[in-house]
Every structure is written in C-alpha cells, then in structure tokens.
Amino acid sequence: MKSIPQRLSDIRSLMAQHKLEAYIVPSNDPHFSEYVADRWKCREWLSGFTGSAGTLVVTTTSAALWTDSRYFIQAEAQLKGSGIELMRMGMPGVPSIEQYIKDMMELSSTIGVDGRLFSVSEFERLSDALAPNKLKAAADLVNPIWSDRPEIPKKKAFLLPENISGMSTTSKLQQLVKAAHIHKDDIMLLSALDEVAWLFNIRGADIDYNPLVLAYAAVYYDKAVLFVDVEKLSEDDQKVLTGSGVHIRPYEEFEAFVERIDITRNVIINPRKTNILVRQKLQHRSVNIIEDRDANGTATSLKAVKNEAEVAGFRHAMELDGVALVRFYMWLEDSLGKETVTELSIADKQRELRAMSDEFMGESFGTIAGYRCNGALPHYSATEASNAEVKREGFLLIDSGGQYRTGTTDITRTVHLSTPTQQEKIDYTLVLKGHIALAMAVFPAGTRGSQLDILARGPMMQHCINYGHGTGHGVGHFLNVHEGPQSIRMQENPVTMKPGMVTSNEPALYRPGLYGIRTENLTLCVPYVTNEFGAFERFETITLCPIDTKPIEKSMLTPDEVAWLNGYHQTVFEKLTPYLNENEKAWLKAKTAAI
Fold it and tell me: How many CB atoms are located within 10 Å of the residue 437 CB?
C-alpha cells in the first residue's frame, strides 16, 4: 500500500501531464450526497483523513486540508507525517481555500477539479473567487493511481408500494411535469439521489444512513428515463417502472445520454445539484440550458410536502422508535453502576433495540452520544480515543434516529443521571421553554422558518445565551434525515412552511467543558384555522418519547407550558403502551407523570 506522500507524488505527476498548478479534491460524490459511498471517498484516500467533511488542495510544492472544528484533533493526528498542512476552518489567521491558492500560485495559473464532483453553482463561485487564475474541470486524477478503488455499490434496490409512498410514479411524474413547466421540447435532468428516489418510489442501500440507490433521471413531457444498474431491481419492480412510462438504462450511460441530447431540446437543470461536467457537455453542443425555476429543485419542493400515506407512515415509525427508546432508557437506568456503559456502547444498544422491529432498515445517521463535556460539542462523534464512560452523574445527551420502511426518525434527549444543580436546572428549563414555544406556535400561512426561529431562542436570549446551529431541518419520508428546502434558523431562507412538511425542533444550550443540552422532536406542519384574518398553521409534534422531567425548574414554566408538557406526555403514554409489557408500561407511566 502506498504511503500518503507517495500518493501525493503520483497525483502531482498527473497534474504535470494535465498542465495543472493545483488540484482540489472535495468530499463529494457526483450526486452531492451528505454521505458518500466508498467509491467516492477520494479526499479520504489521498489524504488519510477519514472525517466526513474536508477539502484537500494539492499544489506542485505543497498540500493542505481544510476541515471544521469537529475534526481538528482527529485531522491533526491523521495528517501527521503526510506532508499535508491542516487548515482549521474558522480559526484566526487561517486562509480560505481560494486565498491559499492565490497566495501560492503565480497569476494565470490553472487549477483543476474533477468536474463530476463540483456543482455548477460551486464551480462558478470558485472560478470567480480564483480569478485571474483559471479553474478547469479536468479529469478524475485520483482514479488512475487508486489501484484498489472500491467499485460502484451493487446493493439491491426495491420499490415502495403505493400504500406507503401514497402516490404512484406515474402520478409523481405528472405532478413534476406540471410544477416544473416541462413542455414537449424539454428534458429535466435529475442528479440528486433523494429526488430520484422520491420520484420513482425507489429505495436502496448504496449510501450509509440514507436508503438511496445510485441513479440519475431524465424527465420528459410524457415519459422518463431512469439510469440505474438494472441488476439491483427485481423483474417485478422493473415491470412496474416500465408500466409507469419509465425507460431503464444503465447508470454508466448517463453521461453518454447527455452527449446525445438533441440540440432542439431545452434542458432543465438545477445548478446547485448538477455537476459542471454535465453542463459543459451540453454547452459544447450548444444545447439550450434552462435553470429550474425553483432554486431548491422542483422535485425537492414537491417531496417536502408529505401526502396522507407518508404522514401515516411517519406516525407509525415514531411509535416503533418510541418503543425502542423506552426499552433503551430502561436499560440505561438499570445498567449504570452494574456494567460499563460508554458513549459507543450506548450507540450499539440503541441500534440493537431499534433492530428488534422487522421494519427497521438502519440508522438515519451516526448516533451522537455526548456525556458531560462531550455533550457540549454540537456535532460530537465518539471515537475509541474519546469514548467516555457514563456514570451516575451529570448530563448525557443522545441524538439518534432510525430508518423504518414507513418513515425516518431523528430525536435528541438530554437526561440527568444524578441530582442536577440549580444552574443545570435553569439551563435545561430554558431549552425546554424554547422547544415548547416553537411546538405551540400558531402562524399565518406563508411564514418562513427564519421568522419562527426566535421563538426557540427567545427564552435563552433573555439570558444572553444562544446556540450556533439551526433550530430545525426538514426530514425525508424513509429518505434523508436532513432534507430541504425548509429550515428553521436565524439565516434567511425564502422557503415558507407548508402543511405536510416534517421539520425538527431542536433548540440547545452548550457550556464548553461542562455539558450540552438539546431537546429535539420532529413536527408536522398542519392547517389550523381559516377565518376573516386569513389562514393559520401550527406544528404537531409527532416524535414519541418522554422528556426528562428531573432537571426541570417548574417555577420557570408558565401554566400553558406545563399543560403542553403534560399533554405531550399523555400522548406518548397512550400511543406507546399498546406495544409494551407491564414492566415497560409502569416505567413509562412514571416517566410521563404530570408535573
């Protein structure tokens, strides 16, 4: 196996052949997925850094890797002796990628990227930032030197029945054609895996945590082409797709298809989700390119609004997940002090208990179990080196989720394992007040997430406390746990909340070196009232799991807040008890008792 310095030397030789002074390697795949298959972990292979986020820049004389604060310690250890300098993003004096390249390069240098791994939008942004240097969509320079590169995943895929998806592929295609204004001379190209999965009701296992299958799609006015490895699909599923007006072609033929598109066609793309190589192939033949009129992607916006069957599926998944979590927290209480419990063993136990359901398809993301000071790191991920033993003292924060055949879950609970201090109770209750404020919100139709965000932050801001991440993200239906286009955060997002959207509610408070507190439920936006003042909407909390009442300072809660919490706990008890044995029911009854 070649060392990292040898790999860097090999890629510099290829850079010389292609007349490149620098080469940028991101963490992307050609579909710009949150998680990528091993096949596209080029940055990891070339640098030795295994964190999920990072960008490597190789010049003729140097190399540097940018990553965020989650990975500073890990990256420092893994890059040691590699010849790659660690760039700690966000730290004083650390240059941006663009500034680093401009400082290292002579004017008018050529910087290369693999055109499949950069979206049109990102390529254009980077090109403008690097000027007068030239950014070139070059070849994949990693492939020729990665002799044992993993193959494209071949895992089986399957179609969701209509009683789970709620709409046939035929109906979804018609919906997309109408919403995107696809006319007889138009073709819409789709590259985002969750958009393709939603449109064709197809799920797979090619990507960790997300039930996706590697595929592209081309949607015409009256038909569609699905580019997927046909061997992944059963003959029955192939017949269903064909009967829906879908032509199935090999995944590898997508680029050749793009090159053969008739120049009389108009091709609709989303520049944020289409790689620059595709657009350049179209431009080379002077094909008319139209940008999707929905900046987030028309398919993404349609997908975000769940239909009745999808909503029912979410509710069922929440019950299954809630049962697993009741059993987990019972196990946790019983095991502390009797056996060694660690952050990693907590993740293993949650996975084991979720897997007791036949409908469990895997985790929706890697479990975040942060004990005491580790919980103060918002995106902490336990490793063998950091793995803390959990004892009967202090706060334990657990953020986890599951993929079920009918829906996706994402939940955070913070529990106190001994007697909380007064400061801990104040902090915990401030987070809870923010969570309840957003959960109880009533708002006019057309409200944006940025307008709602202050409800969750307000109680903490009264104490000059804030948190650095968003309050809410969209969640897919047995799809990506993080999806758009909606969000609840301080930064402006023009997307409005719509009935049928599933969004997280997760305010938090972090005291560095001490503890983190986060309470997260998933919510469903639903219609509320229409009157002479207009249409109003609200959130319905659909996650089902007790919220720890031990750290609550009740004197800080209003009567309405107490009523919400007691009502929520009553719902949790009523929904979950049919699945539980007598001991589990007794435990849950105590945990959901009115305060």
Answer: 22
- Cβ density class 192-220: b for 16+ within 10 Å, e for less: bbbbbbbbbbbbbbbbbbbbbbbbbbbbb
Separation of alpha carbons 372 and 394, rounded Å? 6
Residue 70 confidence (pLDDT): 76
Strand 110-114 with 360-363, pairing:
unpaired
User: Model pTM?
Assistant: 0.94
> Cis before residue 444, ω within 30 degrees of 0?
no
478 with 212: CB under 8 angstroms?
no
Nearest to 538 by CA among 548, 552, 554, 527: 527
**DSSP labels, 11-40:** HHHHHHHTT-SEEEE-S--TT--SS--GGG
Comparing CA positions, the residue from 146, 148, 149, 150 lying closest to residue 11 is 146
Determine contact, residues 503/474, Cβ cutoff 8 Å.
Answer: yes
* Percent of the chain with pLDDT strictly greater than 70: 100
Gap between the Cα atoms of 26 and 103, Å rounded: 20
Strands 224-227 and 246-249: parallel
Give the residue from 595, 508, 504 showing the smallest Cα distance to 554.
595
What is the rounded distance in angstroms from the CA atom of residue 113 to the CA atom of residue 124?
12
Q: How far is CA 211 from CA 246, 285, 403, 440, 526, in A?
A: 21, 36, 8, 32, 26
Q: What is the C-alpha separation between 226 and 249, in angstroms, rounded? A: 6
- Contact criterion met (CB below 8 Å) for 435 and 349: no
Closest to 501 in 3D by CA, of 209, 303, 295, 210:
303
Backbone torsions φ then ψ of 441, nearest 5 degrees: -60, 140
Q: What is the pLDDT of residues 180-231, one digit of tens each?
A: 999 999 999 999 999 999 999 999 999 999 999 999 999 999 999 999 999 9
Instruction: Give yes or no for a contact between 282 and 275, defined as CB atoms under 8 angstroms apart.
Output: no
C-beta separation of 478 from 313 below 8 A: yes
Q: Provide CB contacts within 8 A for 147, sequence distance 6+.
A: none
- Predicted confidence (pLDDT) per residue in 242-286, tens digit: 999 999 999 999 999 999 999 999 999 999 999 999 999 999 999
The first and second tokens of residue 229, run together, are 């490895």
Specify whether the CB–CB gap between 522 and 313 falls below 8 A.
no
Task: Work out the number of other CB atoms within 10 angstroms of the CB of residue 285.
Answer: 12
Digit-coded pLDDT (tens) for 498-556 = 999 999 999 999 999 999 999 999 999 999 999 999 999 999 999 999 999 999 999 99
User: Cα angle at 526 between 317 and 466, to 5 degrees?
Assistant: 85
Q: Is 175 exposed, middle or buried (0-12, 13-18, 19+ CB in 10 A)?
A: middle
Q: The tokens 């109770």 sit on which residue?
A: 425
Give the SS3 label for residue 399: strand
Amino acid letter at 456? A
The alpha helices in 393-464, defined as continuous H runs, are 422-439, 449-461
Residue the block writes with tokens 């336990």 = 382
| CA-to-CA dists, residue 511 to 367, 385, 393, 470, 558, angstroms | 21, 22, 16, 17, 25
Angle between helix axes 308-335 and 559-576 (nearest 10 degrees) is: 90
